[in-house]
């Protein structure tokens, strides 16, 4: 069982929405199937429109976990995640497929696609939080991006969701400094 993979499921779900730009990549059953992708073909076949709505609600709740953690409100982040863990319990199953050795899946037999995804993502995020710390959950600091991430850097210094956002923020800061220098010389 790859805990980082399950935690990344939470990140991927939250990042299907970009509230800073008013974009949402999870509005239809086709969007859900594209999001689940070929690695989750069993889930794709079982997905329904109700799963879309449930995952959108789970996404909002997971975003709160990241936002509370990024704001330093660890207790609220943990409380929110504990509520998700209660609402979406894990049903572990031993699995062997695709020439892999026996391994553990967290929730292959969940009653719905949304509940299975939510259980996996919540449990993975909880395990990651207890392993690396609540303060490792972040929200990108490059406006208008609001994507979330889990900081696994050795020095706990990550502030952006991606290299692209880090570069964009650094270039904007550089240009602002240059403008200030030019204005000071006039």
UniProtKB/TrEMBL annotation:
Q: Can you tell which superkingdom this protein's organism belongs to?
A: Bacteria
Report the residue ranges that make up the Zinc finger CGNR domain in this protein: 136-178
Q: Which InterPro entries match?
A: ABATE, ABATE_dom_sf, Znf_CGNR
- Coiled-coil features, chain-numbered ranges: none
Pfam families referenced in this protein's UniProt entry, alphabetically: ABATE (PF07336), zf-CGNR (PF11706)
Per its UniProt record, what PANTHER family does this chain match?
BLL6575 PROTEIN
Q: What is the protein name stated in its UniProt record?
A: Zf-CGNR multi-domain protein
Lineage of the native species? Bacteria, Bacillati, Actinomycetota, Actinomycetes, Kitasatosporales
């Amino acid at each position: 069982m790859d805990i980082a993979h399950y935690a990344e499921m939470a990140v991927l779900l939250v990042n299907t929405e970009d509230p800073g730009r008013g974009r949402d990549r999870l509005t239809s059953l086709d969007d859900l199937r594209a999001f689940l992708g070929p690695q989750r073909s069993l889930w794709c076949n079982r997905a329904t429109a109700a799963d879309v709505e449930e995952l959108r609600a789970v996404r909002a709740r997971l975003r709160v976990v990241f936002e509370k953690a990024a704001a330093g409100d660890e207790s609220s982040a943990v409380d929110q995640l504990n509520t998700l863990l209660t609402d979406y319990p894990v049903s572990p199953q031993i699995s062997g497929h695709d020439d892999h050795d026996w391994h553990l899946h967290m929730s292959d037999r969940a009653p719905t696609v949304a509940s299975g995804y939510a259980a996996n993502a919540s449990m993975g995020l909880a395990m990651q939080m207890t392993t690396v710390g609540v303060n490792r959950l972040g929200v990108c600091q490059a406006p208008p991006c609001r994507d979330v991430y889990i900081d696994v850097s050795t020095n706990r210094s990550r502030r952006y969701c991606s290299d692209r956002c880090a570069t964009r923020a650094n270039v904007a800061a550089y240009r602002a400094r240059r403008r200030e220098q030019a204005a000071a010389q006039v």
